[in-house]
Amino acid sequence: MFVSGPNTGHESGGGGVSGSVLIPTLFMWRYGGRSVLLCGSFTRWADNIPLSPVEGSSTLFQVVWNLTPGYHQYKFNVDGEWRHDENEPIANSDYGIVNTITVSTESDMALTGASSEAPGSMDVDNEFFMPVIPSLSKDDVEVSRYRIFMFLTTNTAYNLLPESGKVVALDINLPVKQAFHILYEQGIPVAPLWDFSKGQFVAVLTALDFILILRELRRHGPNLAEEELETHTIAAWKERKASLSIPTQVNGESCTRNLIQAGPYDSLKEVALKILNYNVATVPIVQPSSQDGSFPQLLHLASLSGILKCICRHFRHASSSLPILQQPICAIPVGTWVPKIGEPSGRPFAMLKLNASLSDALSLLVQAEVSSVPIVDDNNSLLDIYSRSDITALAKDRTYAQISLDEMSIQQALQLGQDVNSPRGFFNGQRCQMCLRSDTLHKVMERLANPGVRRLVIVEAGSKRVEGIISLSDVFRFLLGVKA
Questions:
Q1: For residue 377, is it within any domain?
Q2: Distances from the Cα of 122 to the Cα of 64, 311, 439, 466, angstroms
Q3: Alpha-carbon distance 253 to 292, whole Å?
């Protein structure tokens, strides 16, 4: 921080009382945006002070404002959203979480949110911009995990049931083609399967099934593929799949023949562990059949997103009891990260370009055991994301019967799902959900708790260069101490 000599309160960058000693203070926002404003106790939380972009940087904004010596609180308004810098001192106030600064009368310019280099020469990649990581002891981690574990243990799946809604189930003897269209038209990625002969739910149909079906049939040509989709039932496909050399489990969706389900009185912990241990995206909550001979009732499709929403709601006003939530995600072992030069590679990180073939994308989803693949440009900056559930877009106008998976590009495949009339609501209108490495675990959890969001792409501020992915299962494995 740079400091000039004390002023006497008559400068245009005001903020002090006339006649008092004022200290020029440099405020800086380092995380990008289009419009950045500053508001604080020194403006009585009424006026907004605009920050100017720093020349030569796409993420830095700054303003110098004269403050009186003493303690001040402030926040930033970034593109209409109130934000605080998590790497600067913070406090709770009537205005939520705010940044704080104590200004002294020393003759060095006070600085918030920047290094001691000249603003015009700052490099966002240099060491001065590494997040300031709050200290966290092993006991803090264990206390946080224990409190979450106890909450999940003492609450049941009934907490997940919405006041109203619908759950789509399919007859296992439906033709594959019809089931394909139903998932697309209803905007859902999975559906439980009902067997009338057994009087029970027996399996779940997922987008992964359609990926495997299309890959299996593509060598027969479009006409035969269309014919087989028309005549083969879901039950026949399940039997066929059992005889193929297909993985029995793929991250996020089940290939197992047995239905993984839970009852309404099962604890949230039991439901979460079933999702993690069986590598499934959802677990049907089923009311068992009663002694009077009534059929089992499908109450809900439980997901980690819904369980996470319960956690966030319960601890919303008691986040201080979970110190782990204030840790930036780069400081805890969570998510899959792009290996840095010179570092040993861990789990492979999959990315593709827009001109890659749809066949390449589908193969990567299955072989790398991931639920989505970031689509990037030549600089590895995020452009879009292709997920397994995107496969249902091929049901539009029977596209699956008219294209070659090797000849259709990812860009063309993504355009199929951009029809404004498409009811594919599980994306909630936002495909690329992103976060920064400096975002706290609490902020990441809040975003992942939104319906339809199953993972966040970790990007570099400004350039959107992909740095990693953090998924719902990553967060739960960390919180519950479950190994992948």
A1: yes
A2: 16, 40, 21, 22
A3: 34
Same domain flag for 106 and 233: no
Q: Does the reported pTM lie above 0.90?
A: no
CA distance 210 to 217: 10
Question: What's the domain range around 261?
Answer: 157-308
Same domain membership, residue 161 and residue 100: no
DSSP character string of 91-108: EEETTEEEEEEEE-SSSS
DSSP 182: H
H or E element that contains 76? strand 70-78
Question: For residue 273, which amino acid is it?
Answer: L
- Indicate if 169 and 214 belong to the same structural domain: yes
Q: In this structure, are strands 23-29 and 96-103 parallel, antiparallel, or unpaired?
A: unpaired
Number of structural domains (the chain) is 3
Closest CA to 113 of 133, 134, 132: 132
CA distance 157 to 145: 20
State whether residue 151 is helix, strand or coil: helix
Residues 212, 95 share a domain: no
Domain boundary among 258, 284, 308: 308
Integer CA distances (angstroms), 15 to 3, 64, 112, in order: 16, 11, 16
Helices 441-448, 304-314: inter-axial angle, 10-degree rounding: 130
**For the chain, how many helices (H) and strands (E)?**
11, 24
Residue 73 CA to residue 461 CA, distance in Å, equals 25
Residue 351 to residue 466: CA distance in whole angstroms: 9
Classified as helix, coil or strand, 392 is: helix
Pair 336, 257 in one domain: no
Mean pLDDT, 10 residues at a time, over the chain (484 residues)? 36 44 83 90 88 80 86 90 86 84 60 39 35 62 89 93 84 89 85 90 87 75 59 80 53 56 94 92 87 80 93 82 86 86 63 92 85 90 89 80 84 74 38 85 91 88 88 93 79
